[in-house]
Input
Amino acid sequence: MRNFVIKRILISIVILLFVTLIIYVLIRCLPASYVDNMAMQLSTAPGAKSYEEWRAQLNAVYGLDKPMLLGWLNWLKEFCTGNLGDSWKYTVPVIEKFKDTIGVSFIMGLISLILELLIAVPLGIVAATKQYSRLDYGISAAALVGISLPTFFFASLLKLFFSVHLGWFDTHGLVGRNFTQLDAWGQFLDMAHHLVLPIATLVIISVGSLMRYTRTNMLEVLNADYIRTARAKGLSERRVIYHHAFRNTLIPLVTIVGASLPGLFSGALITETLFAIPGIGYTSYQAMISGDIPFTMFYMTFLAILTLAGNLLSDILYAVVDPRVRLS
Output
């Protein structure tokens, strides 16, 4: 196990280097950037230098006048030393802005993941054990609806119905107008109230695929020979399903849980943007469209690290879930 983990970490480091190089090249090739916008604004001032002069000066300040490979090596050196630089858009250190926004995204992602597991796994098991019944068709139909609905469309429907027509929730934002006048408990309830629709969007959009995945794997396990043997020995159906079948269904589900790790910390970019939730996803989106290279590079690298860590975690959890699985 130890040799396997060390080998995977070394491979992940190599992959991460190539990923950061690709990200850096793509960002440098974007048609618009913070430097261009700032140079345009500065050149419009009375008696100011021309746009080309300001652009050349700003590129020299931020090191964008260097070749891409050399610029990437300089960024990589600063990144390894913990110097992430300052965000061009937010004019604060990148790590400081990250700390201010990651908490909201983590809470949303964690609550959404827990609700998805609590809803999808039991319903998937029920649908598999009641195959071709009305209940199975109903659960499968609901799962397909959830999979088919685009995030922006479903979020707009929730806002239209619950915010505009019923007036139960605000259409956007994390806090209400009277947030500063509330006590600590009132502020907590106010923030929780504003997170209901975003979390509902994340859960309903994601629960369908996990439900279908659970049902498919459960059906495959229920048709295995050892399940028929367990039933032939006279074991109760409940013990056969939840002790023998479900335990083996957990193995592929571990992959889903490991792949969900980036979502806990990376934020839901579309959902946070639609509801104007100041999480890491919404903040990164604003940085990207502004050409904020330092923050965008950090965010994309952060996602790559989480993805590689999630894959490694999934492989390790295989041996935890099923003792028959051993990594060497």
